[in-house]
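hey so i finally got around to running both of the ones u sent me last week. sorry it took forever, my laptop kept dying halfway thru and i had to restart like 3 times lol. anyway pasting them below in the order u listed, first the sequence line then the C-alpha cell line for each. didnt double check formatting much so if smth looks off just lmk and ill redo it

first one:
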Amino acid sequence: MQQQNPRKNVSRGDKVRRKYKYVDRSFILFLLTSFQVISFTPVIFGGDAINYKVAMLLLVYLVFEWAYVGFMRMVPKKVNFELEFIAFFLSGIGLCLQASVAPSGMLKQLITVIAGVLVYDVLLWFIMDVKRVMAVRIPLAVFALVFLAGSFVYIRYAVGAINGAYNWLAFKGFSIQPSEFVKIAFIFVGAASLDKLLTAKNIYMYIVFAMGCIGVLFLMKDFGTALIFFFTFIVISFMRSGDLRSIIFICAAALIGAVLIIYFRPHVAARFAAYRHVWEDIYGAGYQQTRVLIYSVSGGLFGLGVGNGALRNVYASTTDLIFGLICEEMGIVIAFAVVLAFAFIAIYAVISSKSAPSTFYSIAACSASAMLLFQICLNIFGITDLLPLTGVTLPFVSQGGSSMICSWALFAFIKSADVRAYPKLYKS
C-alpha cells in the first residue's frame, strides 16, 4: 500500500491553508441560525395559529447545531467545520420546505439528519486508520453486492415495483433505498482497492464489484443511481491510472451496452421518451417538468415566500422537484447559493486531496465529491429537461432518510482528506 508521510503532508497543507484566515465559528453559526429562523418564520406564524410543533422542532435543530460544533471543538479539538456548516445549511432548507408542505414529516426528517451526523462521525473515525480500511474492504464489497442483489429479489417478488422501479424496501411505517447505502460501500471499496499498487487482481476485483452493482441497479430500473455509480467508477479509475484511453474504451463499451439495452428492452426507452418533448404532453409525461419550468421562474430573485408557491401541489415537490420549489418560494438567490455550496464541496475536496495523508483519502474525497456533484446535475438538469429525468434526489435537501444518511456519510470521505481533521497532526 502506498502511504505518504502524514507529517510531510501537514506541512504542505499548511502552505496552502495559511493563506486563508479562520472566520469565527460562532459568527458563522449566528448567520446560519438567523437564516434558518427567518426561513421558518412563515411556516410557524403563517397559518391561523402558531405552529408550536414546527417551532419546537426548529429549536431542537438549532440547539443540535450549536451543541455539535461546541462539543467537537472542545473534545476532539476540531478546528474546521466548513463541510458541517454547508450540510446544516442545506439540511435546514430541506427541513423548512418539508415542514411547509407536510409538517408531519419534519420530525422524521430531523431524526435522519441527526442519524446522518452520527454516521458521519463514526465513519470518519473509522477510515482515519487505513489498516482498518484495508481489513474490511473485501468483506464490505461482498456484503454490499449480496445486500443489493438480495434487496432486488425481495422487492421484485415480495414487495413489487414502486413508481416502476424495484428500489425501495418498505417496512411498517418506513422505507429505505438500498442503493443509497451501497453508495458508501462503492466509494469505500473503490478507494481502498486502488490505493494499493495497481495489479491485475486489484483492478479486476474492483471492476467486477462496480459492474455487479451497476448491473443490479439496472435490474432494479434505478437508472439514475446506476449512472451515478458508473460516473463515480470512471472518476476513481482515472484518478488511480491516469490512462485516458482506457477510460474512453470503458465509456464506449458502456454506451454500446446502453444502446443494446434500449433496443432489446423497449420499456427502458419509454422512461426517457419525454426527454426534450415535455411541452408536447404537458398533462401527461411532461407534467412535472413543465410545472417546474413555469413555477420556478415565477419566484424571481427572492421568491414568493415559503408556503406561497404552486409547485408544492405537484407530486414529488419535496423529493425530486425540490430545487424548483426552492427557486419558486425562496428565490433564485437561495437556489444559486445551494449550487455554489455544492461547487465549494468539489473545490474543497480537490484542495484537500493535494495534502491528504494517504492516496486512499485523495481518491475517496474526490470520488465522493464527484458522486454528489454528478447527482445534483442529474437532479437539476433532469427537472429542467436539459437531461432525461432520472428521479434522483438533491443531496441533503430532498425528503428521504436514506439519501440524508448517505449524503452525510459521503462528507466523511471528503473530510478525511483534510489534514485539519487530524488534531494530533495539525495544530490551529
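and the second one:
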Amino acid sequence: MGMIFKRKIEKEFIAWKESLKLKKRALVVKGLRQIGKTTSVLEFAKANYECVVYINFVDEKTIKEVFDNDFVVDNLIRDLSAVLPDARFIENKTVIIFNEIQECANARSSIKAFMLDGRFDIIATGSLTGLRGYNKKESRGVPVGFETILKMYPMDFEEYLWAKGIDDNVINYIKGCFKMKQKVSEALNKTMLGYFKEYLCVGGMPDAVNTFLATHDMNQVRQVQRDILENYHDDFGKHLNKDEKEIKNKTESIKITEVYNSIPSQLAKENKKFMYKEINLKANAREYRNAITWLEEFGLIELCYNLNVMEKPLKGNKIDNIFKVYVADTGLFVAMLEKGTAHNILNGDMNTYKGAIFENVIADAFSKLDKKLYYFSKNLEIDFVTMYDHEVTAIEVKATNGNSKSLKSVLGNYAKYHVKGNFKLIDGNIGTENGINTIPLYMAFLID
C-alpha cells in the first residue's frame, strides 16, 4: 500500500462542505485516471462523515440497475441498502461516493433528486467525464446547478516537495524570495533545482512518486509510468453504447494512437508547433483534429495556442489552428521518450529534448494553476504568454540559461508589443538584468 499524499484540492473539498450550508450541491471531481482522485475523496470523506457509502460503477455493474427506476430518494436508498448490505445511511451524517460516474448516466441524473431531498451528501469522481458523447445512454439529463465541479491534476512541484517531507518553512522561504525578488541561498537553490530535475523525471502520478520515494530507482519508476500509459492506451476511442456496454471505435482509436505517438517528434522540433505531417505525410486537420480533441478532453494533453497579439483578453487573440501540444504530466512525457532520458536529465546531460522537457514542465505547472496556455510566434518566439499580477506577461524557458533575444526585443519595443511583465525561467537564481526578471525553473508554480 502506498503512502497517502497531501493534496491541494483538499482545501477545495473543505470549502465545498462549508458551502452546503447555503445550497446543497454534489461535488464532482474529474481528471485523468490514477492521479489520486479516489484516495483523496475517501480520505476527506472518512475524516468528515460518520458514514461513507462507496459505489464504484466500473466494478459493481449491478448497482446501475438501481438508478433505472424513478428518482425517489427513499426508494433509491432502500435498493442501495439491499445491494450493499454493509452500507449505513444515516440522515445528515452520510456521504455517498459515486466513483467513475461517467459509467452510469442515470446516477449522475439522480444527483438533482438527492440534492433537493437534502438528507445525503454526494461526491462523484469521473475520469472520462469530460469526454463528449462518452455515454450514449438516454439519461435524464445532467443536474445543472446541483453540482460543484472540480478538476484534479497530477501532483504539482509543491505537492511533490510535501511528499518528500520538505519542511513548510523551507517552502515559505522560497515563496518569500519570489515575492520580494530576493536571491535564494545558493545551497538551497541548488538543492531545489536538483529536486526539480527529479520531479521532471518522476512527474506527479502518485504511484510513480511513491515508487521513487520507496526505491530511488528510475527504472522501476519508468515501469510504473509505462504501465499507466498502457492503461490510458486501452481507453483510446472507448465509449459506452445505449445499454452502457463498452464499445471501441477502431478508426478513432487508431487516429488517437497516431496523434499520441507523434508527440515526442512534435516537441523535438526547433519549432514545436503541431504539424499534421509528423503523424504521417498524408495526415490533415480534417481527419485528425477530433483525435487531438479526444486526448485533450481525456486529460492527457494540453494545447498551447499561438496569439495574434500579446494583448488581453488572451483568449480573444488566440489563433485556433496554430498550437503546440504538451503532455499533462512531464514524468509521463519522459517515459514516452527513449530509455535513459531520465538518467541523462538527472546527470545534467540535456540532449535533443532539453527544451521540450523544460517547456513541458512549465506548461504543466501553468495548467495546474488553471491557466489556459498561449505562446507568441511572429518573427520572434515567446515560449509562454500568461496573465500575472493583472498584466500580460511574457515568459521564456531556458534549460541552459541561454540568450533571450526574443524577450529583449519584446521588452525593447513597448510601442509595438505593449508588454512589460516578464519572467525568464532558468537553471539558476533570482535576479534582474536589463528589465528581465530571472527566476529558477522550480518557481513556475508561483506565477499564479
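quick thing i noticed on the 2nd:
The chain has two domains: 9-151, 157-235+299-446.
anyway thats it, ttyl
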